[in-house]
Request: fold
Amino acid sequence: MAIVRKNPLKLNKLQLRTLVLAQIVARDENSGQIDAATGEGTLLRVPHAHGDHVHVGQFTVAARDASGFDNPAVWVVLTRKGLVKEGYPGSIVLTKDGMEYDTGLGDHFLEESDH
Reply:
């Protein structure tokens, strides 16, 4: 029986937060799209902060938690680890592995938007 390790690629907190938010954006019909043949997710629109928060799909996220969207170093690491295809900042495509990577953060800092 194989043991599944949590965070096997040893992503740091900022990388994990950015990846989970990118997964949500890719799955949101207004901001992303999933390629059914490959399982890859394309971010059609990268969310930007206004005030102290960011709208990510149907959720409101604290701007500090979404700061990785504007950090090129985060995308370099996610690309190097095979979770994102090259293309930042022009286009961001999560690989199938990137779409399926369990960050363990899916419900830790998200709340549905009230506007």
The longest strand covers residues 53-56. The mean pLDDT is 87. Strands lie at 32-34, 41-43, 53-56, 59-62, 84-85, 92-94, 111-112.
